[in-house]
Design a protein that fits this description.
The protein is mostly helical and 371 residues long. It is built from 17 helices and two strands. Strands 1-2 form a two-stranded antiparallel ribbon. A hairpin with a 3-residue loop joins strand 1 and strand 2. Helix 6 packs antiparallel against helix 13. The protein is globular, with a radius of gyration of 21 Å. The two termini are 34 Å apart.
């Protein structure tokens, strides 16, 4: 009993710290980007730092951090969420379709508009960068955002895992559909890179962390996981900030490489548009299906966040001579986390307003949608 009582102050302190950081997470994220602009060096070191793992060779620390996010998310999965998800698999199916369809339509729209907005020498390579982002699977980090927002982790992880499984087939064909004229050789190389990520790398960095988190939840039990939730939440929040600092440091170098303001503005508009169309489709799907707040948040984070890390690998492999491709990918990385921070803030404000409302009888439909 004494040992348990001695742990309570520490538990309460971590709970307060995690709650405070979560409440002010959007300003903290903006401050992280400002720090990356002032002091990008450590962020670049974090991004490029690699560790040697037995049997798999050197791996970047950023992949380890993404694995931490998936572990923390899987550890707090509630079986009621899994049951709800299994009862309505159409939610996942439609979510996967619009995760790729929405950005693809956006690419086609920008392809028609850009010739009217700017000369070709300004926009060269930017549509390719946007198309590359649009063809990517759902970002691993969306699970961390969903966890901290109290969303449906089962749906979030399913969007990540299934989209990565399908990406070797979807990504090259979607690039062709969007009008990027790929040669047969380029198509084969892209398929190779994406397939490699969907093979042992996918198992190592997506499947294993998710299974480890689910196993930890099973072995520890509901009560212990409830005690660990503040620690898991704080770990996820700090990990997201570190990853964004590393990515922002790379983006700042790219932005300060001498690009005209018109190029930066157009790239930023494209990046924000990818996030907004994902949120819009998530909202439409949630309303059409009558989904709960937790399901909407999982869709909003998943559909507005693309696996830009894989996009950077492909851009570095095939498009080294087109720096504006990389610029669009990097700005999308920053924009989607800012958008996620805005979604999270909106959810907090909605929850606060509900907490302040006087309690009263509610219909069963209202209770289900708020669950």
């Amino acid at each position: 009993m004494a040992s348990f009582e001695s742990k309570r102050p520490a538990h309460a302190a971590i709970t307060r710290i995690a709650a405070t950081l979560h409440r002010f997470f959007l300003p903290a994220l903006v401050a992280t980007y400002a720090l990356a602009g002032i002091l990008p060096g450590p962020g670049t070191v974090v991004r490029e730092f690699a560790v040697k793992l037995p049997g798999v060779g050197e791996q970047r620390i950023s992949m380890l951090l993404l694995a931490v996010l998936l572990f923390c998310a899987a550890a707090v999965i509630e079986w009621s969420q899994v049951h709800e998800f299994l009862e309505r698999p159409s939610t996942l199916l439609v979510g996967l379709i619009v995760a790729w369809l929405g950005p693809a339509l956006l690419v086609m729209g920008f392809s028609a508009l850009l010739p009217w907005l700017a000369p070709h020498d300004v926009t060269a390579g930017m549509i390719v960068g946007l198309a590359l982002v649009a063809a990517m699977p759902v970002a691993n980090s969306s699970a961390g955002w969903t966890q901290n927002a109290g969303g449906n982790i089962a749906l979030s992880l399913s969007l990540i895992i299934v989209s990565i499984i399908l990406s070797p087939l979807v990504t090259p064909n979607l690039l062709k559909f969007m009008g990027w004229a790929l040669s047969d050789a380029d198509t084969r190389r892209i398929e190779l890179v994406v397939t490699q990520f969907s093979g042992w790398s996918f198992t190592l960095w997506v499947i294993l962390p998710s299974l480890a988190g689910a196993l930890a939840a099973t072995l520890l039990g509901t009560e212990r996981i409830a005690q660990l939730k503040p620690w898991l939440r704080l770990t996820s929040l700090v990990t997201i900030l570190v990853l964004n600092y590393a990515n922002a440091s790379l983006a700042i170098d790219e932005i300060w490489s001498g690009e005209p303001n018109s190029v930066l503005m157009l790239a930023a508009v494209m990046a924000v548009a990818v996030c907004l169309i994902g949120i819009a489709f998530a909202t439409l799907q949630a309303r059409a299906f009558g989904l709960s707040r937790g399901n909407w948040s999982a869709l909003a984070f998943g559909l507005s966040m693309k696996h830009t890390g894989l996009a950077l690998v492909l851009a570095g492999e095939f498009l080294k001579d087109q720096p504006r491709v990389i610029l669009v990918v990097l700005l999308t990385t920053l924009a989607q986390h800012l958008a996620a921070g805005a979604i999270d803030l909106r959810l907090q404000m909605t929850q606060d307003s509900r907490d302040q409302e006087p309690s009263g009888p509610r219909s069963s439909t209202e209770r289900v949608r708020e669950s």
